[in-house]
Design brief:
Chain lengths: 102, 550
Amino acid sequence: MTSPLQRKLKISGPTAITANRLADGVVVWLTSGGAWSMAIAEAAIATTGEEVQRLLTLAHGDENTAVGAYAARVEVTAEGRAAPANLRERIRVNGPTIAPAA
Amino acid sequence: MYVYDAFDRTFLQERVAEFRDQVARRLSGELNEEEFKPLRLMNGVYLQLHAYMLRVCIPYGTLNATQLRALARVARRYDRDYGHFTTRQNIQFNWIKLAELPDAMADLAEVGIHGIQTSGNCIRNTTTDAFAGAARDEIEDPRLYAEIIRQWSTLHPEFTYLPRKFKIAISAARHDRAATRVHDVGLRLHRRDGETGFEVMVGGGLGRTPYIGKTIRDFLPKEDLLSYLEAIVRTYNLGGRRDNIYKARIKIQVHELGAEAFAEKVEAEWRQIKDGALKLDQAALDTIADRFLTPDFEALPDDPAELATALANPAFARWHANSVVPHKVGGHAIVTLSLKPVGGPPGDCTADQMDTIADLAERYGYGEVRVAHEQNLVLPHVRQKDLPAVWRALDAIGVATPNVGLVTDIISCPGLDYCSLANTRSIPIAQKLTQRFADDARIADIGRLHVNISGCINACGHHHIGHIGILGVEKKDEEFFQISLGGKGNSKARLGELIGPAIPESEIVDAVERLVDTYLELRASPAETFIAAVERLGIEPFKERAYAPR
């Protein structure tokens, strides 16, 4: 059976690696330096399958900091920064779209 | 209330200590995620979109005031001042840090509650009628049997790794308020020839492949409850599919084998064990019954003067007509607390609300609180003369919206605002619907109407059994919603029928309103409910109007 890391990744555009921080579940993004940041704008942006694969391997090797890492499609801002590309990632970045019970 | 003994308390403390050690080892890196994940799930800890989520089991939906205050304390100390009551009578905390989870669990263990078996492929919390022990149409208090099932199923060594999760619901009243026909096993206590026993239904469930449960035994003597359940779960454990997670629930096994063939397997297994250690003799039943503290109800007259006076107030009268039902003991009433305020997330309750409700339960309700599967709370034993004071206190904290059972009493899953499985949001749709139907007089005129919303095909919002069911689907990163009509979860349970293509998020509230307007126009009389009208007319006239103005 092929492990998820060995499968060939299909990349449809700019991609970043995201996960949840082990200690509290907070959404984090992998930076080009291999650290985790809470700011998506600091995420490393990959555009090839090989690069995404390399970053994912890096992420999965750091599961004592962040867990459940996966590749998420992102948009690139005029400043060249990553931004969420779909509703799920917008909610992960910005929090629930609703106010909790008051 | 069932009173736990020293064995239960010691077990919970040991379990918290074990989990504390597991968390410490995970945080230090001694355990990796693959090793830790099944351990946290066995304690009800999920990792959701933004944070860890702790699901706390509320056995058969029954809480005492002390336990409710403990939930409030957890919400305040470790979460964001609120919790979310679920369709399986549990509560979820959405924002707990991993390192603080053992402390939260220790606080809960002090009052006898925990998250064990609220996740994983095991037998989950047995749910029942939120009016149990209070309802006039009840044969017996079903919680006695739910407690027996709890004791049997907790850490059952044979059933810790089933093909998939396993949910049991039990009802003992003429009206099924526990949705027994859409559970893996549904039990209906009824009377035959002077004796009480169970109708046993298997293979019900919602999710991506919904089925109504099939009756495999009309009448099971009470003494055989556990041995028969053991035979069912063993048959499932041995024959249920493990090759495909989407086909692993018992409902698929029952469907593929046929109910009759499945029943034959169960009966064959049962014949071998029915007279063994699981037989429930009267002494065993009495031992457990003795640990239930039953309120010492005062003998009081119905319709006291205090109530008659208060009914002159139209706001109180509207709430009373909507949220209060008769109790089996004269002079008492069952009060449902709506956790569906206009514009609020269905099922959410703040720590302050929980504390006040606990106070009210102690002052006016013999210290008991229930969680209803419709995501509301219940004070099951309130003196009728106290209803005006209870109403004022509930209204002051926003849980007296007179919409119980009406169009805005919406069941909704957490959806994409919290859940890592969801495709679309569901709470915002519920909020918009409650705002659209905010007028109390209007919703009272519309009458009984259940709207259920799920943010994905897993159907945690029970959309299949909503009179109006709404299912979120994602298309090219846009939220769309399918509508089904005619579902119901009572004793005549039925799955709703899809009316057509999915509707964009921006149009779903208008579409629901058109369905309601169609009902108002076509109903035979105000006495004909929405579901009765759909059953009489079929979905066609509704379908035409839902999609009309294009």
